[in-house]
Amino acid sequence: MAQATRRLGNLRSQLVRWLLIPLTLLVALDAVSVYYNALEVADLAYDRSLLASTRALAERVSIVDGHVTADVPYVALDSFETDTLGRIYYKVTGLKGELVSGYEDLPPVPANVKRSEVYPALVRFYQADYHNQPIRIAALLQPVYDDSMRGIALIQVGETMEGRNGMTRKILFDTLWRQGTLVTVAALLVWFAVRFVLRPVMQLKGEVESRAPTDLSGFDPALVHKEMRPLVQAMNGYMGRLQALISAQRRFIADASHQLRTPLTVLKTQSELTLRELRRTRLDPAELRELVEGMARTTDSAVHLANRLLTLARAEHGAAEGGTMRVSLTDAARQVALELSQQAVSRRIGLAFEEEGDIGIEANALLLHELMVNLLDNAIRYTPVGGQVTLRVRAVSRPGEPTGALLEVEDNGPGIAEAEREKVFEPFYRAGATQHVNPGGTGLGLAIVREIAAMHRATVTLDAPLQGSGLVVRIAFRGVVELRT
């Protein structure tokens, strides 16, 4: 349980993490997307400005006296060469590749650069290193002609990357600032929302902590959200079962105390009487023997009752040693019949065992043995001298159902009236017809049988024999059984 608590951690923290971590990742992805989109827009804007400069320079290129010339005034030349955010370089190449004007060492157009499809012009954009710094260059093919000649001149305008990089950094920082602010605000909203949403749960926690240990009343499911109500209802159901268990324990303790008080009182009276007789000068051995035998019988009755009480308590709370295993119901029944055969013989009762092969079931061997001992012991105790008790084990099957096992104990004793057959499963209840047959009975045998049967998901039914008087107790074990003939 402690390991599960450490693994699960705090609910509020987990909710905040599960909300904020995906949100942060989404915001980060969105920031990257916005950043690259903004870079594309910035590159497009700077390339358009670079193309405009190239076109302005191309308008000043003409043919004079059979030579390509570029009429670039000093003021225009100064504006081309220097910009507020960096430097601008240009180069005009004639029809035969000769330098007309500008920087001769400006990097040429790479062969693999394609014409830009964005602008309706024969322009190509590329990046290169010039004087140990990166520059962006626009190369425009400009047709020039006069009456004597015509051809294509190349106008190149390069720009250093300071302006672009500055704009890129500004876009990046602005994006991160906005997205960081968004995440911070979202975190605060999520935190307060989680606290607000979990407030009913925390109130329920406070109500649970403030409850007295003896207060097992249910909680109102309407105090929490709809999704939490099944949990509260499950808690109420558990407390109801716990209340029933505690009530049963209290009732059991009260009944056990009442039942044990009688034999213990008798035993105390017998022991005091025995001591008084021992103080007499002349002690009658017959009287002393009768007193000691009475104490022994009372002790046996008290021990029998205590054992029955312990068995019932163990069956009710499932505290039997060991788990379930594959058990031969046939062998277990045969063993119980052998164990109680001497008791039957001493009462001159015929004890028969009937079986239909080796039938195996999933059961707790110790409790199964206790169940059969109680059934057979009851049958022998309440069967009159010269009567008959039969123990049967057989397999049963119904259409569409797996094979089950049936354990039957039949006797020809006084039986149990139909109106009392459900009551006899209550602890310490004794049917009227059986009290005069066995006045020293405890009324726990069938209660133990039902509890053990319930643990094995078996059903107990009481019925009258087909012929004559008596009682038939049937234990039907469900599920698939192993049948070996």
**CATH class value of the largest domain:** Alpha Beta
What is the overall silhouette? Answer: rod-shaped
| Unreliable parts | 1-5
**CA-to-CA gap between the ends?**
47 Å
Number of helices: 12
On the 0 to 100 scale, the average pLDDT is 78
The count of domains is: 3
CATH fold node name of the largest domain: Heat Shock Protein 90
CATH architectural type of the largest domain = 2-Layer Sandwich
What order do the helices and strands follow? HHEEHEEEEEEHHHHEHHEEHEEHHEEE
| Secondary structural class | alpha+beta
Q: Give the fraction of residues assigned to helices.
A: 40-55%
Strand content: 15-25%
CATH superfamily of the largest domain: Histidine kinase-like ATPase, C-terminal domain
Q: What is the oligomeric state here?
A: single chain
How many distinct beta strands? 16
Main β-sheet description: 6 strands, antiparallel
Alpha carbon gyration radius: 51 Å
Brief sketch in words of this structure:
The protein is of the alpha+beta class. It is rod-shaped.
